[in-house]
Amino acid sequence: MDSTENPTIDEAINLTLIGEDLDKVYQYDYNSETDEGLQTDLSSELGISNDYLTLRQLNDKLSFFSLSNGAISLYQKDLVSSGITTYPEFYTITSERSLVWGLSSENSVYFGLYKPFGSTNLALRIVDLQTLEGFDIAIEFGIDQLFQPLYHDGKLVITYRKGNEDYKIILFDTQTDDIVKTFELGGSKPSVLITEEGELGIFTKENNENTFLELFDMENLLNISVRELQFDQSFPTGPINGKLMGDKLYYDYVYQQPFSLSKGPAIFDISTGTNTVLDLSGTIEKLNSEKSLDIQPILGQYLPDKNVFAISYILPNGEIDEPGGFLLLSTEGKLRAQKNLNFVPTYFVD
User: Fold this and answer.
1) Is 167 exposed, middle or buried (0-12, 13-18, 19+ CB in 10 A)?
2) Number of domains in the chain
3) 75-126: per-residue pLDDT in tens?
4) Which domain of life, per UniProt (predicted)?
């Protein structure tokens, strides 16, 4: 997590992942050199169950949101210091609001919600983690759909579709509690990410036309560039499961069906228009044949500090003590590691 250099092909990879079995939540710290890891029972350590609502990561801190007894609780763990902070039942669910998502910054929790309950009037509920006092800020009346948020360096990125079906992105400054930038996108569905340089990247695509990428400086509130890409992949509206580093986009490629996989790791070079899809299917077929497994991938993440794609899988026909596992692929498609676990990984720490 602290490294800023990509490892060579021969360097060991230290990896932390989160996952669940039928009862509990676990942390697993893996080292590829020894092919061993340290497993921590987070359910016992934090007091969370495997049906928590959301897991968010901010720098080296993990935040788990859960719902019980009609209230939201927040459980946080610092992965460097192992320090734990809990806010049990700090927000009581009421008939006044309908919560859609929650996200924590360094000092506050932000809930995207509809108010009043039963309406589609978009608002933010901001709760100070020191005092646990909160207040609401109205954003827009009568929207059609609210998507998941992004947070970076004091800015909250909120994407939604308005009542007239036009799309809109707002930048909300958490220091001043003001909307500092609005993107009116019409019928173009936006997909967003934060680049490795800390810029906001907005991908838009309307109907079957080419994709456009706009880069925006969130600190100085300035447009950097708009580029048309020879890129035919469609992303979901809202945050993208991908990383944009320089001119290379590391992302989930969606296969045309029928195919053995629904998606897999890929790299799109913006400068050349070259799209490289790694042979995850071939890797899995080889592992299944050699080790008598039935690997079925469920999610993948590109980890820039490790320069690998991490793929989580389930083993539906495996032993009861090994229901899942993960594998690591280099950006050239070489298998770096494969490990069965006694739970199913659902999140890789970036």
Assistant:
1) buried
2) 1
3) 999 999 999 999 999 999 999 999 999 999 999 999 999 999 899 999 999 9
4) Bacteria
pTM recorded for the entire structure: 0.93
List, in order, residues 6 or more apart from 186 with CB less than 8 Å away. Answer: 166, 167, 206
- At 60, list the tokens: 């080296």
In a domain, 198, yes or no: no
Q: CA 201 → CA 126, 191, 228, 249, 316, distances in Å?
A: 25, 8, 13, 11, 37
Q: Provide the residue range defining the domain that includes 288.
A: 13-51+278-349
Give domain status of residue 292, yes or no: yes
CA distance 179 to 146: 16
Tell me how far apart the alpha carbons of residues 108 and 284 are, in angstroms, rounded to a whole number: 42
Residue at 17 is within a domain: yes
In a domain, 265, yes or no: no
Residue 24 exposure: Cα atoms within 13 Å on the Cβ side: 14
DSSP assigned state of 275? E
